[in-house]
């Protein structure tokens, strides 16, 4: 257990000065080099009182230093040779604090990605500017499933090259540094394990040089060990989270610096968002990586990350899903769903389609002689209605099975939608359209269906859990979403 401290409320003065620091950062990020929407710092309704011109000058001059930081040899950028060979500038860099170095490094990445956003349409391979960072495993994102393949590629490469995550060591297993690996919330345990013990290049032991700080607690484990069944009392979870933040914010300088804006937590449990209320800055300012990405429950897509839910029975994926049938294999069923009637959407689905129509195989309880994954592999569309919470492991399973997911959700921010065009490999149907579901699916032309399936084959790798993690797989995609929130760049 982590040590607990008495709750101490922030004094008005320290709160204000902290907010000012946060605002300065927000303004910096809004500057010329900065693309897209800003993080919403708490209190962001306040008008910026900092003179913008002065700040911009500050950013501009620091950008000059950034040019100098570029290592000679990393050519192919548009930085002027003279500038980054200027020895007097290069020497100055040595005197920068870790924090300044980190920010400048991010400014370079931001500028590079921004150039890619504005310059790449179509075939990114033809661009010569990225060859210096292409690696052995040369996957290059391309095609309609990506919002902007070139910008994504650049951003991904910048992430691989620079991104450093500091993992707090505070806390003991099982509630920290450990998580479920064998159930519906397994992504929690798998991520913690990968970032802490994986071969990855992303973890740094040098907290000064980190871009983000990870608090490796597991809400699923808290539910297992702290929650009293049927009590519906989530206070112990909130207290644990609150204590954790308090401990790291007293022991290290990093949390207070930005009020947690460069910190992240990750959880797949339904109650993850509730637990994150344990600290209001964590809730409002930090990056929360959540399966339960319900915008009606405070999920903020500009700073929070939607996490795919991946169900691992006995710690593994079903072998059936690992090798889907060839693209031309016949899929006799139009659509398939089997699952309980919980949550706001499924009652309507089951009411209209359970045992109604042979084309739509809709079950509440799957009869024993039928096999769940085989049915997915034999269906053209897999229905993925939200249950108790917005996310459903069916979505990822459908992607593995190359069965076009039919998303039936409200207020759900789909995973990796900052990079992926979900409409290129799934169908979204309004809940009010459920009575017309068969009509809607029948109306998808053969050609459109083929395109969607091709799309699934492309995005499949982005949802795969590998041990060890592999480039562009789900672990890297999650990190990339965090990276994007940290540098705060929009790719589309
Ligand atoms: C977080 O946001 C909520 C809702 O906007 C607000 O009531 C609360 O005061 C905020 N907390 C902090 C610490 O700013
Ligand atoms: C190098 O930097 C110094 C100090 O900022 C500056 O005076 C000088 O003009 C620079 N030289 C070049 C070639 O950019
Ligand atoms: C961070 O701020 C809190 C509340 O103001 C304070 O108790 C704590 O000591 C600060 N942490 C550090 C490392 O200064
Ligand atoms: C699918 O394609 C393969 C090779 O292209 C072919 O050998 C096979 O007969 C096809 N199967 C069906 C069901 O059309
Ligand atoms: C999303 O949040 C809203 C507001 O709390 C809630 O009514 C709705 O049921 C949630 N959606 C799901 C699928 O849980």
UniProtKB/TrEMBL annotation:
Q: What is its main location?
A: Golgi
Provide the Gene Ontology terms for cellular component.
Golgi membrane
Report the transmembrane regions from the record.
Answer: 12-35
**Which keywords does the record carry?**
Glycosyltransferase, Golgi apparatus, Membrane, Signal-anchor, Transferase, Transmembrane, Transmembrane helix
Reply yes or no: does the keyword Transmembrane helix apply: yes
List, in alphabetical order, the Gene Ontology terms for molecular function in this entry. Answer: glycosyltransferase activity
Q: Cite the PANTHER family for this sequence.
A: EXOSTOSIN HEPARAN SULFATE GLYCOSYLTRANSFERASE -RELATED, OS04G0109900 PROTEIN
- Protein name per Swiss-Prot or TrEMBL: Exostosin GT47 domain-containing protein
Species of origin reads: Rhamnella rubrinervis
């Amino acid at each position: 257990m982590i040590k607990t401290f008495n709750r101490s409320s922030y004094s008005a003065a320290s709160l204000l000065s902290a907010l000012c620091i946060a605002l300065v950062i927000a303004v910096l990020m809004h500057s010329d080099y900065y693309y897209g929407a800003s993080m919403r710092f708490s209190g962001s309704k306040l008008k910026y009182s900092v003179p913008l011109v002065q700040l911009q000058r500050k950013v501009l001059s620091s950008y000059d230093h950034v040019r100098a930081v570029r290592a000679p040899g990393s050519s192919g950028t548009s930085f002027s040779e003279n500038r980054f060979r200027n020895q007097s500038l290069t020497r100055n860099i040595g005197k920068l604090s870790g924090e300044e170095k980190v920010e400048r490094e991010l400014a370079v990445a931001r500028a590079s990605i921004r150039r890619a956003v504005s310059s790449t349409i179509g075939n990114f391979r033809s661009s010569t500017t990225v060859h210096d960072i292409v690696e052995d495993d040369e996957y290059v994102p391309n095609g309609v499933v990506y919002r902007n393949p070139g910008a994504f590629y650049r951003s991904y490469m910048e992430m691989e090259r620079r991104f450093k995550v500091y993992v707090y060591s505070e806390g003991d297993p099982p509630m920290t540094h450990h998580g479920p690996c064998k159930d519906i919330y397994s992504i929690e345990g798998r991520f913690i394990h990968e970032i802490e013990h994986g071969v990855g290049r992303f973890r740094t032991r040098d907290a000064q040089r980190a871009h983000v700080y990870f608090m490796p607690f597991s809400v699923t484990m808290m539910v297992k060990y702290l929650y009293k069944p049927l009590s519906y009392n989530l206070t112990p979870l909130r207290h644990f989270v609150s204590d954790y933040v308090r401990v790291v914010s007293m022991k290290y300088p990093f949390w207070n610096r930005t009020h947690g804006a460069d910190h992240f937590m990750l959880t797949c449990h339904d109650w993850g968002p509730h637990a994150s209320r344990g600290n209001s800055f964590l809730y409002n300012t930090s990056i929360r990586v959540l399966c339960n990405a319900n915008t009606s429950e405070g999920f903020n897509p500009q700073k929070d990350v939607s996490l795919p839910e991946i169900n691992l029975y006995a710690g593994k994926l079903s072998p059936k899903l690992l090798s889907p049938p060839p693209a031309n294999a016949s899929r006799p069923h139009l659509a398939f769903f089997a699952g309980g009637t919980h949550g706001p959407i499924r009652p309507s689905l089951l009411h209209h389609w359970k045992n109604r129509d042979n084309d739509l195989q809709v079950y509440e309880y799957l009869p024993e002689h039928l096999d769940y994954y085989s049915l997915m592999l034999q269906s053209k569309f897999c229905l993925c209605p939200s249950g108790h919470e917005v996310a459903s492991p069916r979505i990822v399973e459908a992607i593995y099975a190359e069965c076009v997911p039919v998303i039936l959700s409200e207020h759900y921010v789909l995973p990796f939608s900052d990079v992926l065009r979900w409409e290129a490999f799934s169908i979204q149907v309004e809940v009010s359209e459920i009575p017309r579901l068969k009509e809607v699916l029948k109306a998808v032309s053969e050609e459109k269906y083929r395109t969607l399936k091709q799309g699934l084959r492309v995005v499949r790798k982005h949802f795969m859990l590998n041990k060890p993690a592999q480039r562009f797989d789900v672990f890297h995609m999650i990190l990339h979403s965090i990276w994007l929130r940290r540098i705060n760049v929009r790719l589309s």
